[in-house]
Amino acid sequence: MAHAIRMYETGGPEVLRWEEVAVGDPGPGQVRLRHEAVGLNFADTYFRTGLYPMPLPAGMGVEAAGVVEAIGPDVINVAVGDRVTYTGFLNTLGAYSSERLIAAAPLIRLPDGISCETAAAMTMRGLTSAYLLRRIHAFQPGDTILLHAAAGGVGLIVSQWAKLLGLTVIGTVSNESKAAIARLHGCDHTIDYSREDVAKRVRELTEGTGVNVVFDSVGKDTFNASLDSLRRRGLMVCVGTASGPIPPFNPQLLAMKGSLYLTRPALADYIADPAEKNELAGELFDHVAAGRIRIEINQRYALQDAGQAHCDLEARRTTGSSVLFV
After folding, report:
1. Do 101 and 213 sit in the same domain of this protein?
2. Transmembrane ranges (predicted)?
3. What pTM, to 2 d.p., does this model score?
4. pLDDT in tens, 108-158
5. CA-to-CA distance for 200 and 284, rounded, in angstroms?
6. Contact by Cβ (8 Å): 174, 192
């Protein structure tokens, strides 16, 4: 019998329930997928708390990798026995499961050099890193970025990829052990936000100029410092709200701080076109398979222990990527 994490109300990690589920046969456009590993993402906590609304009851998780067990009518992009990975949003919700039915459209076939565990640890983070560095801004060698949560899953991939593009990376971290991890993965400079003034330190490191782009996944607690770290006409990229939503502000603030640009992108809009998704995934897989980008899986949890995984994630006790094993 298959099992899954389900929730019937929003709240803390205690609302996550481990249950037996019936999977059934795939319908038109669907496959039955046996998971080998499930990705753990901070966005999962947004669904659990209700920050991202969804109809209840519901499954949890939007990213996993495994093997296609059966296909329904009209499925042409994958076949039985294919190893695949996926990520998305509401269209892939339910990844915290040992088996499931899922639409075939979001599935990405894995090359031989990428394991299911690695894929589950990197598909969302890797594709996020891909669009941030390859779509969101026309980076030039020598540009400088400020990267919050530099020792996190996205941070470690962005740092390594940024170095391949010739960028200078300034990363924020919460302690020296995380700073060491960030430096090992390409950060040229680290800032401990628990004891240093981030914007002031950025200005010192850039000789008063500021950075070209900020990637801010923290939100409320770092928003003002991020704006103050940008050079004139720099770009602020809000990619998450780990500390809470950014409060409303007057857009005139952007003009006052140097005619700044601000965007709040979503991965779904960069992988909606299958051709673009495959191009980004192909570039990501090539870098990982060749060893140019290393995927660090630093935490592993049994799927039924998803509640503990959420506790650790929200307490910022994790580094790199985390996976739930089936």
Report:
1. no
2. none
3. 0.91
4. 999 999 999 999 999 999 999 999 999 999 999 999 999 999 998 899 999
5. 34
6. yes
Residue pLDDT, tens place only, 183-231: 999 999 999 998 999 999 999 999 999 999 999 999 899 999 999 999 9
Helix/strand/coil for 59: strand
Residue type, 95: A
In terms of C-beta density within 10 A (0-12 exposed, 13-18 middle, 19 or more buried), how is residue 272 classed?
Answer: exposed
Q: In sequence order, what are the beta bridge partners of 297?
A: 321
CB under 8 Å to 208, separation ≥6 — which residues?
none
| CATH at residue 211 | 3.40.50.720
Is residue 156 located within the same domain as residue 188?
yes
Closest CA to 191 of 206, 292, 122: 206
Tokens of 248: 């409303």
* Residue type at 107 in one-letter notation: L
Cα 299 to Cα 40, 250, 253, 257, 306, distances in angstroms: 10, 41, 40, 40, 12
